[in-house]
Amino acid sequence: MSDLNLDKLPGGFKGMSEDIGSDQTTFKGVNWGKAMMWIFLLSDTFVFSCFLIAYMKVRASVVEPWPYPSEVFALEMMGVPVPLLLIAIMTFVLITSSGTMALAVKYGYEKNRKMCGWFVLLTAIGGLTFVGMQAFEWSKLIFHDGVRPWANPFGAEQFGAFFFMITGFHGTHVSIGVIFLFIFARKVFRGDFDTGRRGYFTTMKSDYVAIEILGLYWHFVDLVWVFIFAFFYLW
Amino acid sequence: MAEAKKEQTTTHKIGIYLWIWGLLFVLSFFSYMVDWYNFQGLLRWSLILFFMFLKAGLIMAFFMHLFWERYALVNVLLWPMTAIACFVGLMVAEGQYTVFSRLFYFFVGGA
User: A75-77 and A80-82: which strand pairing?
Assistant: First the structure.
């Protein structure tokens, strides 16, 4: 195979039709693992869309009033209820971790082992903080307010089912991401991506592109939270 | 060997990431303010959606590097999302019909 120079290929829609019709790799210059991660994220988008669309449809068609999220998710601060305080902090924590991940990917490109490792570790800690706050939020709703998937004291009964399903599924994604971030922080610090050490499960040579792929997953988790924040908490 | 040549990684200046990061903070702050000042009705919806799409676009374009990818990959992702948007539209119509029938039969009474 000759050297592929992306700059010489036509761009835009013409480039797209030539890439697809080239009888070769469609996604030129894209690592196969990265393409696979994108396909996975696309399928994950469908799952989250189904949850959010089902939520929208049910919320639009219940006859009882829907619980007012601004009050349900308020936290008492010095005797004053502050609306959505915890959710706002969670949002900022997740965005912060997304930013550190972006920097980790940048340093990964530059093969800067130490900086990349520290930023992956920071991202993992941010994710862990997020999951911890979500556990606090859930326990407050379950034990303090008595919200159940089938009933709640605030209004329409379906609220609990959708809340636990959607935020739970998102929280699961964050938790899995945190586990992988810790594993990859270790791999970066050990120098796996510099020496090309073979992976334990995959037996394939490690490369810094793995950090970019992990970054795609992590940014996706943040992306989903943007939609959950808008539709579930703010709407 | 050929495999290694095929994949190119490009690095970008740190400034672009910091800018996007800062913008995401500001936009999140604004969308929180929508709730804080308790805007209602059409203004609330449009502001929430505006900030949401802006944030989602920034994350996808710069953090997920879609802005620098070739159209072959970008379009594989964007067209299914367009289909999802159509699905949302269908379900909005369906939801309105459901709530109409519920209100009609629960409160006006059928048969």
Answer: antiparallel
ipTM topping 0.90: no
Mean of the per-residue pLDDT values of chain B? 85
B63 and B81 in a single domain? The answer is no
CATH no. for A28-67+85-234: 1.20.120.80
Tell me: do B60 and B30 sit in the same domain. yes
Asked whether the predicted pLDDT for residue A61 surpasses 50, the reply is yes
* Residue A38: exposure state from Cβ atoms within 10 A (0-12, 13-18, ≥19): buried
If one counts the domains in chain B, the total is 2
Q: Which residues of A touch B98 (CB under 8 A)?
A: 57, 60-61
pLDDT (tens digit, 9 = 90+) per residue, A121-143? 999 999 999 999 999 999 999 99
Report the pLDDT value the prediction gives residue A106, as an integer from 0 to 100. 92
Residues of B (49-108) whose Cβ lies below 8 Å from A: 49, 51-52, 55-56, 59-60, 62-65, 69-73, 75-77, 80-81, 84, 87-88, 91-92, 94-96, 98-99, 102-103, 106
Same domain, B52 and B30: yes
Give me the residues paired with residue A137 across strands. Answer: none
pTM assigned to the model: 0.90
Q: Please check whether residues B4 and B55 belong to one and the same domain.
A: yes
| B57 and B18 within one domain | yes
B71 contact residues in A (CB cutoff 8 A) = 11-13, 15-16, 19
Cross-chain CB nearest to B70 (options A19, A58, A233):
A19
pLDDT for B85 equals 93
